[in-house]
Structure formats: C-alpha cells, structure tokens
Amino acid sequence: VKLWGRMLRALISALGWRGGIQGCAFSSQQPHLTPTGLLSATELISHWTAVFEKRGIPEARESSEYIVAHVLGAKTFQSLRPGLLTQPLTRWQLRYIQELSSYRLQRMPVQYILGEWDFHGLSLKMVPPVFIPRPETEELVEWVLEEVTQRPHAVGAHGGPLILEVGCGSGAISLSLLSKLPESQVIAVDKGEAAICLTHENAQRLQLQDRIRIIPLDVTLEQNWAHLLPWGPVDLVISNPPYVFHRDMEQLAPEILSYEDPTALDGGEEGMDIITHILALAPRLLKDSGSIFLEVDPRHPELIGSWLQSRPDLSLNLVAVRRDFCGRPRFLHIQRSEP
User: Fold this and answer.
1) pLDDT: is 33 or 114 the higher one?
2) Which domains does the chain have, with CATH numbers?
3) DSSP string for 119-159
4) Residue 207 region, left (φ>0) first, then alpha (ψ -120 to 50), else beta?
5) What is the pLDDT of residues 196-235, one digit of tens each?
6) CA distances from 179 to 111, 123, 203, 216, 293 (A)
7) Any signal peptide, and if so, which residues (predicted)?
8) pTM of the model
9) d(CA 212, CA 219)
10) Please, what's the largest Cα pairwise distance for the chain?
11) Torsion angles phi and psi, residue 137, rounded to 5
C-alpha cells in the first residue's frame, strides 16, 4: 500500500475519475470562497491549487484539476475541450467545485469525492469506506492474465478458469478478469457488507453479474470455507489481502486512515494474519496444480516462503515473485503441487 501522494502521481498520466457524491447539499458556510473574479476553469484550478498547497493537501494541482474537470463533465483536465478552459462557469458549477474542494480540504481521497475511477480500463463506482484499488493491483491483474493466456495449462484454464477472489472490495480484480477472460467465472468473497454491495453494483453496471457469485464470508472462520466447496474446485485463488504491518498503520496518510476501512489494510503484527488463513485453506478449494496469486508487502516474499516451508502438509510452493513498477517485490505466484 502506498501513501496517497505516490498513488495519485502514478495515476495522473493514465487514469481519471468521474461520478460524484450523490445528493450532496451545498453548505452555506464554506471555507476559501471562490473570488468573484475567477470564473474560468483555468483560473479556478490555479485558485484551488493555491488553497490546497497552503493547507498541505498532497498533489494539490492534480486534485483541483480532477475536481474542475469532473464538474465540467470530463474525466481529466487534459481532456476538456479548449473552449471550456476560458469559458465563464455558471454559478452552480462554481458552488459545486467549491463543495467538492471542501471535501478535499478534509483529506477525503479524490476517488471518493468524485465517486468513480478507472481500473484496468473499467469505470468503477467508489464509495467510502470500501478499499480504493491501487495502481499496483492492475499489475497483479496483468500477471494473472499473462499466465492464463500464455500458459493456460499452468493454471488449469480449460475453456476459461474458475477464479476465487478473497476480499473483493469494489470488485476491481474480479471484474477486470471477467472482462478480459470471456469464458471465465468468478466467486468473489468479502466480509464487509459495503464491499459486497459495491461489487454487486459494479458487476451490474458492467453487465458482468451473470458470471460472478458474490458471497459475504469471513475467511478467518474456517467453517465458512465449507460454503464455497459446492462451487469448487477452482483454478485460481487471487487476493490483495490486508497486508500492512500493524505497527505501520499509524504512518499511513490521513486520506487512508480517516476514510478507508482499516480491516482492509491491517494485516496484524507481521501483516500476514489474513494471508496465512488464505494459504492454509486454499488447498481445500484448489484443483491439482491450481495457483494462488497475492499482492503483498515487499517484506513478505521471504516470510511467506519460510512459512510455506514450515507447512509441507499444504503442498504449496512459491514458484515466482514479481516486482511492482517501483522495483519492489510485490506479487507472489504460489502453486499447489500435483498429488
């Protein structure tokens, strides 16, 4: 998990958000009112950038650009028609920009403010406190797609894999895989009611609901896994689990600590509480030679490798580690041994 600033920088060139906070009421008392002379998009961005910088808001200019672009009906400032940059805004648009900017001043993430963002080419609805998928997770999806399409026998994908995602959140991983693998099917589980509801909504918005089963389930309760057996065995288990070391939680940015569900982040003392549950129980659901793909902390590959060696009864082998775009070991491919 990266801090907000680094995450937003990684997204600036390729991704945007749209949507919005539905039914928001405009407050009669707003800080940093827009000066009456600043009426164009360009001037407003300069104004709010200065306000954000003064208040120590990360990625001040990018935040103001996304907000103004959203109010003007675009995903990014760069995609606005040139004529809109200098055209006077309406009074409603000025007030809406002011309202959304006030949320940013409270350190609300841009994704929640605008209510939607792109993940792997899909436009997903985003609402707090459901975990915001990061750009690293797109790399995890890319790796899985490579393995399925280039080496289908390695992941048991005959006619399309059956995939289990543990901790589906907004549905980003599951829905991305479904959209790129038309013969695939997914079982998506999460213990959070908000996450289950949001994955349902995103699946329906993308018309992928017929190929996904979304099940409320706490993977830390071993008896719950029995509910999944009738739909197995599965070819792949995929998860971006809570993996932040508990002692590192307080170092996370206010955008994360104040708005995102801490249970989607805190992985316990060594960040492995949920990971070990997944590894201990996944063999009951995996096909022979089935695979597990995980996003983890860079300190985890060594820890997980040692843990697997201590549990030979699971017949799981760490077969590959992949680095993220910052060069850190972030993704694991673990395979079940053939009997």
Assistant:
1) 114
2) 18-114 (no CATH), 121-336 (3.40.50.150)
3) ETTEEEE--TTSPPPPHHHHHHHHHHHHHHHH-GGGTT-SS
4) left
5) 999 999 999 999 999 999 999 999 998 888 889 888 899 9
6) 22, 12, 10, 22, 18
7) 1-23
8) 0.87
9) 18
10) 74
11) -65, -25
